[in-house]
Design a protein that fits this description.
100 residues; alpha+beta; 4 helices; 17% strand
């Protein structure tokens, strides 16, 4: 259950911008799963996984087959390498210049 549900149109728009602004689609160079990525700094990366991307990720599928299932806080190293490549190529900008 949400602890805060905005009712003001301005607050709703701020929430949308905070969660969706500047997200860039990045495809894994290995399994082609597609995630949405935002980097607010050199050391911070936000990654949004859709249900389809989770299903397409071979690493997550492999971990899901093991006893204890996969650790949801452990990223896929192949996707992280793909994101790093996209950052180096200039496809994912770094910095929240617009406040988001």
């Amino acid at each position: 259950m949400a602890s805060f549900v905005p009712t003001s149109p301005d607050t709703t728009e701020d929430q949308r911008l905070y969660t969706e602004a500047r997200l860039v689609e990045v495809a894994c160079l290995d399994c082609l799963a597609k995630v949405r990525v935002k980097k607010n700094s050199e050391h911070q990366t936000s990654v949004q996984w859709s249900s389809d991307a989770q299903g397409d990720c071979q690493e997550f599928q492999r971990r899901g087959q093991q006893p204890g299932r996969r650790d949801v806080h452990k990223p896929c190293p192949r996707m992280m390498a793909s994101i790093d490549d996209a950052v180096r190529a200039g496809e994912v900008p770094i910095g929240a210049f617009d406040g988001y």
